[in-house]
């Protein structure tokens, strides 16, 4: 893609160089630059080096890839850093299954359009009682519930990566299994669960700014093996008997009521 753009500009440089900046605003350089050979071409390309705005795009691509090399999880902030989204027919579902061999928990891609399944990266720890959440159709989180027991452990899979693999993330504050996981405003919420002795009412959220978990308002009732849903910027915790409603406001997460 990058080389095609450059060839297109060079074809009639005098007439088209004024449009280079506008064009490069829509080229996903940070994603393309994950390949070292392409990154070298980008850095050394005269058309980009001689254009101040395009140099900013190159610096953005370099910074993005440096950041991803030292920390696993980055929320894309611009269209250039966000992987392309395809039509619903090409959406892929990630399925989990238990295994008696290594990896203990293997995963598969399923494409509804082709109805085909293929192997995906596995997790060495069994996640039979974990919670799962996805941010921006790109980052898959497996939270708690390791090897039939409660755990603070969290793993993440970046499905847009050239070589996707499960990587460890910051541990939760509280060890949990049979918990509920919800995603709201690019944040992962771990709700309730079981700590090996009792059901939990505590709730914590993964802060992407410092990649740490922090406790927020607790539920009024302890519950495990629950479901989580998000409707109109509200996080719902649901089990057989009780529904708790949280509202996101300027002061943070607030428990409104239990039904």
UniProtKB/TrEMBL annotation:
Entry protein name: BACK domain-containing protein
Q: Which UniProt keywords apply?
A: Kelch repeat, Repeat
Q: Which organism is it from?
A: Acyrthosiphon pisum (Pea aphid)
Could you say which residues form the signal peptide? none
Q: What SUPFAM superfamilies does the record point to?
A: Kelch motif
Q: Sorted alphabetically, which InterPro entries does this protein's record hold?
A: BACK (IPR011705), Kelch-typ_b-propeller (IPR015915), Kelch_1 (IPR006652)
**What sequence ranges are listed for the domain BACK?**
1-34
């Amino acid at each position: 893609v990058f080389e095609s753009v450059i060839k297109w500009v060079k074809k009639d440089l005098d007439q088209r160089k004024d449009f280079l900046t506008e064009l490069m605003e829509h080229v996903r350089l940070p994603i393309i630059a994950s390949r070292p050979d392409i990154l070298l071409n980008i850095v050394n390309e005269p058309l980009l080096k001689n254009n101040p705005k395009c140099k900013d795009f190159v610096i953005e691509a370099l910074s993005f890839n440096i950041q991803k090399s030292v920390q696993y999880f980055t929320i894309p902030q611009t269209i250039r850093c966000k992987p392309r989204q395809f039509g619903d027919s090409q959406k892929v579902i990630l399925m989990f299954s238990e295994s008696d061999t290594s990896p203990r928990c293997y995963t598969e891609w399923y494409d509804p359009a082709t109805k085909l399944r293929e192997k995906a990266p596995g997790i060495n720890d069994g996640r039979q009682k974990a919670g799962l959440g996805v941010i921006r159709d790109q980052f898959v989180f497996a939270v708690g519930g390791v090897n039939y027991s409660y755990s603070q452990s969290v793993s993440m899979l970046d499905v847009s990566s050239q070589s996707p693999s499960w990587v460890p993330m910051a541990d939760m504050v509280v060890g949990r299994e049979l918990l509920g996981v919800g995603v709201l405003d690019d944040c992962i919420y771990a709700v309730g669960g079981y700590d090996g002795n009792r059901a939990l009412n505590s709730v914590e959220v993964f802060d992407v700014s410092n990649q740490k978990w922090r406790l927020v308002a607790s539920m009024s009732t302890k519950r495990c093996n629950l479901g989580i849903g998000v409707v109109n910027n509200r996080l719902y915790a649901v089990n057989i008997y009780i529904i708790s409603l949280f509202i996101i406001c300027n002061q943070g997460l607030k428990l409104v009521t239990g039904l």
